[in-house]
Amino acid sequence: MPKHDVLVIGAGLAGQRAALAAAEQGVSVGIVSKVHPVRSHSNAAQGGINAALEEDDSWESHAFDTIKGSDYLGDQDAIEVMCREAPDELLRLEHIGVTFHRDEAGRLGPRAFGGASAARTYYVADITGQAIMHVLYEQMMKFADRIDRYEEWFVTALVIADDGDCAGAVTRNISDGSMEVFEAKSVILATGGHGQMYRPTTNALICTGDGMALAYRAGAELMDMEMIQYHPTTLAGRGFLITEGARGEGAQLLNARGERFMERYAPNKMELASRDVVSRAEQTEIDEGRGFENGTVALDITVVPRKRIHEALREIVLVGRDFAGVDITREPIHIKPGNHYAMGGVKTDTQGQTNIAGLYAAGEVACVSVHGGNRLGANSLLDTLIFGRRAGEDAARRGKRLKFKRASKAALADEQARIAAILDRERGSGRRISELRAELGATMDQHLAVFRDEQGMATALDVVRRLKHEAKTAYIDDRGAVFNQDVLGALELGFMLDCAECACVAGLHRKESRGAHYRTDYPERNDAEWLKHIDLSLDTEGPEITYSDVTITQWEPAERTY
Amino acid sequence: MRFALRIWRQEDRGAEGRFERYEVSDIDPEASFLEMLDVLNERLVSDGERAIAFDSDCREGICGACSLTIDGTPHGPRQVTTCQVFMRDFPDGAELTVEPFRSSSFPVLRDLVTDRSALDRIVEAGGYVSVGTGPKPEPNAVPVHPEVQEAAMDAAICIGCGACVAACPNGAAMLFTGAKVTHLNLLPQGEPEADHRTRAMVRQMDDEGFGGCTNHGECQVVCPQEISIKVIGELNRDYRKAMVHKLRARRGSIKPQ
After folding, report:
1. CA A367, CA A527: separation in Å to the nearest integer?
2. pTM of the complete model
3. What is the mean pLDDT of chain A?
4. B45 to chain A: which residues are within 8 Å by CB?
5. Closest by alpha carbon to A205, among A502, A485, A501?
């Protein structure tokens, strides 16, 4: 049975950063991923990473932009930590070999990004996430004596010891179907978001809310689950992302009449208002008939000099060419708002610690909460690195201090039985997993999107609860042990349904509009009643609702205009 | 559209594999190659047959997971990852042969899924920066010329898919290793360890059983990231330099790294 001081689940940027931080403290680390680490979804982060590094910039300015972007739902103590520590983290990345953009004088050169009052987004063309991830992976290799990598292992449940502390995880080896308990003094969840519960989404196939559901089932609290970001520029149909960096470089949004419509919604920041504002503006144009027939508006990148496009947006040139058949240097590309990011997740403190001792979360799976109601572009990479590191360091300290708890064998037997039951379901006994997944995706995209209301969210909750019921009898065809993707699909569907239920319940409960949660039936922000987090914990019947305060340090809530 | 497919099926590592023939019809020309396989898999599953195993994740050309050989070319005909190959790229009614990436260093695990961990072990041998730069340096203390930064980035862009190995008649991993070495060796932060890194990574590459480069150039023709074969030149140059330093050190003229 593998045994580690610190067990990290998920090997994107948050997970790799946590593993590195723990290894640097000298403890033994295991890192489990259901894919090869460099295939993780952090790869998809295009635009960059924010840090107040320029002389005329300040961490306070970065913090204020983040708080305003969050529609004042972000916890200001956590945001202060993130923005203060950003410059050092960025420099560290630079020192281990991330090739951040340099200007003609050889100095680090940032680009402008949405919702920010200064250009403070450092970038590697439009492959920033990939560039950072490969370099972090190299660093993990450097610690090969202390970090054991378990690639293509799938976590099915967390193990909670008799005293209530987290003591490990039950895992399934994807390549041969064998199951084991991984024992650990601390477990760090770094499994990313739940974008796959939407269709379309910019998220990869692996983003199925695993960590949120694992934590929730183990008794951890989830927070801000109603806050789900629609990115303003995704391709219609498949949901591919066009980086905010395009607008940072000067690209404009146009409706079908050729009007630069952001003038009416955000006269100062225009296309670089925060994402919730831009997505609502686009959706309003589309809904009121000023969009194109295919339900889109246009992003005109041709106003950016061609040389600059090829230098700074090269992946987008390929995405336009391959997936839309458009040469973005010559003609506008059709885009619309699309599911992109979960602001909510497993509730943690600024060390990544959840309400279960020994269980940490960092990155998109977690909710510290630094993003509140709406995340600013290029703050997600920062979030993964800062809180990944802090969780790794704290978990390592815990590992040095404590002895191993006995992880009960019962958890393994329970999980083996649960999976055997899935494998044994009769063919034709219910619906197919893929059908349920498609229905879930379409339902969420219809009712918990840019605009929401009571009726729509109630419909979505009904559908999700019916799907939960149907998932109990949904059958799979592959009964084998080797690379059985079917059985993983069934487990992932269960994770997504838990996340979707929580999003619907919290969305129905929050009777105001704030950040990405815009209700047409309650169109105003209501600080008197709703300047608070909605926390969810698993009760016998589903999520139980409690509240927690928003931490305010020095920025009182104010009206939000761009 | 309609296609006939000859697809490699293999139960697990070491098992004997064979080609199976499948026909698909009503395929949307805008479907990607992987979406076409999804359609086929849906049908296989509903007929009670085992789905075809293949790697894929992001499906937008950045993760490097997908790894099919289509009609003998890794990733297919267009020098992009398999997920960016569209059915409109093939004539209607075509017969297509689909295999895993072929290399003796990439054992087949099942159907179209291979074990590419040999590439990881090359990186593990020394493909990282480990020198510390002390506390809180000024961010621009060492300016990096944008041309150097861009050249390093053009190498760092490697997604580790392994198509270069699969395309090479010698099964060489020199485009991959060259990209990794070039990225770090070009940068000031990677330079101090350049000799050790280059020697260790080349040694590991040889130990994994990858072949050597004889300038076929197939690797750069299939690389979805369009990494230039120039990185192999950089690798050879850095390797020669590192060996010369080592020899001189043995003779006592300079201190080895």
Report:
1. 20
2. 0.94
3. 94
4. 432, 477-478, 486
5. A485
